Amino acid sequence: MRIGCIGVGKMGGGLARNLIRSGYDVVVYDIDREAVKRVLKVGGSAVHSPSEMAAMVDVLFTSLPLPKHLTDLLIDESGILDQMQPGSTVIDVSTIDPRTARLISDAASQRGLQFLACPLGKGPVQAEEGTQPIYAGGKREVFDQFESHLNKISTSVHYIGDVEQATAFKIISNLIGMTNVIVLCESLRLGEKFGIEQQFLQKLLATTGADSYQLTLRGPKILNQEYTPGFSVNLTLKDIRLGVSMANDLNQPTPFGSLAMEFFQRAQNSGLGEEDCAAVYKLFE
Amino acid sequence: MRIGCIGVGKMGGGLARNLIRSGYDVVVYDIDREAVKRVLKVGGSAVHSPSEMAAMVDVLFTSLPLPKHLTDLLIDESGILDQMQPGSTVIDVSTIDPRTARLISDAASQRGLQFLACPLGKGPVQAEEGTQPIYAGGKREVFDQFESHLNKISTSVHYIGDVEQATAFKIISNLIGMTNVIVLCESLRLGEKFGIEQQFLQKLLATTGADSYQLTLRGPKILNQEYTPGFSVNLTLKDIRLGVSMANDLNQPTPFGSLAMEFFQRAQNSGLGEEDCAAVYKLFE
Question: Which residue numbers delimit the 3-hydroxyisobutyrate dehydrogenase-like NAD-binding domain (chains A, B) (predicted)?
């Protein structure tokens, strides 16, 4: 089985390296030549274009920043689904919205191809370690066919349902997590204004009902004013936008998500786009 | 040392029983006779009015629902600070705002009395077990004088600073926690709309950056639609109001706290006041 990987940056790169280490025959492509080199150090080979890859792989992993990048690659601009061999499978690990996932899934079906939407639960560190949670969506029989392979690059593979459920789940998880980050920033700043030292404040909050994964993960960034991402403001804004938009499609109100979107937009406008999402703290200074 | 307890309901009652079990000479008062009876089963004695208690105790614990109840008791309506013996100490364990705490602290000083603001970190269960975190504020020497006594009713006593810091800290902790609750409700409902079963959704979210103390504590209430408080919508609304108001005093914006206040107000208006704060979930149905 030959595997192709398009997009081998922070997230896709870790997956590609783990596939190679697990003994698979892996071909990679990325517009960033440095990202490709970082994979080739471990093994595998590279191609010069997505089209070149399409015809030669049984499974194609994609990891791209935006839903539009993915539809351009697979259906529109490059349209490489048309060049893939019937019976082969696309496994996307990007964070995309349910509507785009459905569009790709249907386009794949029409060409006799299989599709799984497999958004990832954590960050680049876990992708590299092979401990990245995978939330898989698509036809159950396709998942069953690939479960053992996914287990080679993840210690925690979950079958969520169809592609809509898997992609919605990932976005919902980010919607909660990233909104919790701003809620935290707002109050951490308030505590400082009341003269409570930041480190002491965070340590005490962890003993109360205010405790959260984001307090543990992003509290130290705020404390040290060190905002290397992690998960950037730009990506956060993108995901929250997808969340608010997919909720709108179902007439489901997301007042807190919408307010969070406003603040991350403001952070981006203030030049914080490439900093970690915890940098929204600066908006409260 | 004789200790008085005014307000022996869910929180104050647990503290009073622990003081009695620790061997202190305890006198209690509450407008709710049943609450008083639940203390007397363990020991201690009761008086018929706060005034009667004021002159006979060395330390007065107060645990009341609203800041106004406390100022009425101590300064205005009942004004029992005037009846306390010079050198005695008031220890308030209610959740009050920094401004009220300062007012009481100054009023106590003027009468030769001591004051500690000691808001509590968790719920009635911890008050009863004696594992209730205490966040103490006031003069350091007063805290030092009472630390060993506070350790009898709490396994985790923290000195925060002056009364403003301790009371602000407690409110900030609730502001984060209770806002996280609505953020969670908004997204849990969105997940259900996408056809993800609630229990599965919560279990998976706990493996992501969406995890929080509130997911663990209130997720099951939402799952089982069982909203016995816990911490009621009414009390939540009160605390968030105090938080937004104390932030306004410092010109510090709390857009998420303000939005949360709107939703808990709406929940109260919908007749959910006596249900657990997790019942805001119903606003998204």
Answer: 166-283
The per-residue pLDDT for B124 is 86
Burial status of residue A47 (CB atoms within 10 A of its CB: 0-12, 13-18, 19 or more): middle
Chain B residues with CB-CB distance to A205 below 8 A: 172-173, 176
For B120, residues 6+ apart whose C-beta sits below 8 A from its C-beta are B11, B93, B95, B126, B127, B132, B133, B134, B135, B170
Segments of chain B with pLDDT less than 50: none
Distance, CA of A158 to CA of A172 (rounded, Å): 16
Alpha helices (H) in B75-212, listed in sequence order? 98-110, 124-129, 140-153, 163-193, 198-205
Average the pLDDT over A162-189 and give the result: 98
Domain end, chosen from B142, B161, B180, is at B161
Percent of chain B surpassing pLDDT 90: 97
Tell me the pLDDT tens digit for each residue of A20-69: 999 999 999 999 999 999 999 999 999 999 999 999 999 999 999 999 99
pLDDT band at A122 (very low <50, low <70, confident <90, very high): confident
Which of A101, A129, A161 delimits the end of a domain?
A: A161
Nearest Cα neighbor of A22 from A42, A46, A47 is A42
What is the identity of the amino acid at A186? E
Supply the mean pLDDT for chain B.
97
- The total of structural domains in chain B comes to 2
Both A8 and A147 in one domain: the answer is: yes
Cβ–Cβ gap B194/A284 under 8 Å: no
- Chain A residues touching residue B178 (CB < 8 angstroms): 209
Residue B256 and residue A208: Cβ atoms within 8 Å? no
The CATH number that applies at residue B45 is 3.40.50.720
Residues A87 and A192 reside in one and the same domain: no
Say yes or no: B185 and B100 in one domain. no
Amino acid B122: pLDDT = 85
Domain that holds residue B248: 167-284
Residues B110 and B173 in one domain: no
Looking at per-residue pLDDT, the higher value among B123 and A72 belongs to A72
CATH of the domain at A258: 1.10.1040.10
Nearest CA in chain A to B214: A209
Asked if A268 and A201 sit in the same domain, the reply is yes
Three-class secondary structure of residue B135 per DSSP: strand
Chain B 159-178, residues with CB within 8 Å of chain A CB atoms: 160-161, 164-165, 168-169, 172-178
- How far apart CA B23 and CA B21 sit, in angstroms, is 5
Q: Are residues A149 and A13 part of one domain?
A: yes
Dump pLDDT digits (tens) for B222-240.
Answer: 999 999 998 999 999 999 9
Report the SS3 class of residue A148: helix
Q: What's residue A230's pLDDT?
A: 87
